[in-house]
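2024-03-11 09:14:02 INFO queue: dequeued item Bacterial type II and III secretion system protein, len=685
2024-03-11 09:14:02 INFO validating residues
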Amino acid sequence: MYCGTASETLFLMDVFRGKKILKKTGSNMKQRIFFLILTALSLSQGLHAQRMRSMDFRNQRISDILMALAEISGTSIIADETVEGSASFHFTDSDFEESLKSFLSSYNLFYKKDGNIIRVSRVDASLNSVTGLVTMRARELELESLVQTLARIWNTTILYDLLPNTTLTVDMEGLRPEQALDIFLRKLPEFALEKGDSYYYIRRSSQGTPRLSASGREISRSGDQYAIALENARFLELLPELFKKADLEYAIMTKTDTMLENLYYTGKDFDTLLGIILEQGNADYVVRDNIYYVIELQRRDIIKKFRETKLVTLNYLSAQEIPALLPSELGAGNSIKIDKGSNTVIVTGTGAEINPIVSFIEQIDRPGENWPVSLKYLKTEELLKTLPPSIGKEEILASGFPNLVFFTGPREKREIFLKELALIDRPRPQIRYELLVIEYLKNSEIRSSGGISANNPSKSDDLSFLGSLSNVMNLSFDVVAQFGYQFAANLSLQLGENTAEVYANTTLNGLSGQEIKFQNTDTYRYQEFEVDADTGNVSRTGVTREISSGLIVSLNGWVSGDDMITVSVNATVSKQNNNSPGDTTALPTTSERVVNTQVRTPSGKPLVLSGLMKEGTNKIVKKVPVLGSIPLLGRLFRDQSDTREKTEIVIYIVPYLSRDSDSEGQDSSLRLERYYHSFIEGNIK
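2024-03-11 09:14:37 INFO prediction written
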């Protein structure tokens, strides 16, 4: 929605305050005033809308950029024949005229406002109608364009012979037009200015014009090598002599002549020498049917006839990489296209344009050096995830084997890569976990001796010691070494009296950072039933349910630089409960005890996780056979007791940092002998 200025608002208020007058003056007067209101609003809105939007142009023709600006701003922008070339510019969200001025000044362009029209040119020229003096500014503009501009503002006819294709930078102010013409011709001694009755004529004279001798002795040839030694020469005179010396057919399709200076070259082949001369004369050439066609670069209509297309199929590089690799001086921005399917580069242009591009592509499309690198401990995918900082992922190629890669970078970089690889391609530390899980019955009495007697050893003492540890000696977990003889004897007694039960007794191995799991569960399958609400009939649904219960322990440890072990423990103990006697269709319930923890410990130091407690009720029914099953009367022959039990799950874990020389365990007889010497004979001494 448009919001007017304060003056516009007051104007509208005045108009609407006079609505009674409008009624009296009739419909024609109403229409006229409302038309004025709309006109004022539209003009005011147009003035406030001259804002430049943020835009970005990259390597676009200047005339196309001006056309886009005219379309966006709603302003007529006209560029004259001097405006050419491409430009790159970023327009910010700012005032339109300021943005336009900044863009034009960046590319040596000028503009003038002619009513609602903006005229853009490479030359800023004006004639003072009072003094008759000329002001003109231009940078690197063709001489012919300067002469034409002067003739237009002077309103005088200026005739001229074919002028050389030379450019001038002028900055003149307050000069007579004749003086401006004299300045233009200072660099052209072969031209003279003649004044007629109502015109001026720039005539080319023979005086001071250097010419080649009839024999062309300034150009010499020795086999396929050419030499030229000229202080100055005219472009259109030098070319025929060069082609005659080479005995080649040619057609010069440009009329633009220029003065060439300091031509001293030796040991050049024909195409190289011709290219040097044409570059100074702002021309190009193509060869068709062994005929050399010399064309002017600005003549796009002629150039199109001689454009050709070459397909370059790449064998080693990807075609998509070529645009980024091409040097900017080749000017290949609009000359190449990529065909991903066939890995081909399509180059379009004249021979002089595409030959350097094709030659460059052929030079870089070479097979690179590849070095195989064997991995000792890492896998290829692990290496690609953790590459050393000296190399990029594109320099490593997978071989398809898990322990072999190819390095494609430079030789010097390969040496750095191998040194860094030696630091990371090492075996990951291995961790051995000794795991013991025991369920204790808390409401049972535990009988144990008060200590260890220090009597002289005898055969009966040996048997007593052996008996006190008999139930723990079958465990792979070294209870005595970790918790002492007293704890081991108590545990052995509890196991013997069935007040403790071993849930897990195992040894697990895993690499640092690798998760391992111990699972000891029972899985039961149940048929699902449904009960009809109306009839009470029970029928099968055909669905089978699985219920698993037991022990699951997950361990994930990693070894730090100081050989400390950090272990994450996730333990779940589940148990399936009994259904009520009268319910035969419901699935049994389960109870779970879960613990998650993380701890850091040295190698060989035990971890104890306790507190997984549960209380339950056991019903014990004793009855006389047959008589105890009689309804009502059977109660006299039946005895029922409820016993509340409290159990606790305790998890014992000992992580070890495995070494090659480590022993993972000892025979039970050797362990028993070691315990006897440590605890019995040691106390006697």
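2024-03-11 09:14:37 INFO annotate: Residues 219 and 228 are 5 Å apart (CA to CA).
2024-03-11 09:14:38 INFO item closed
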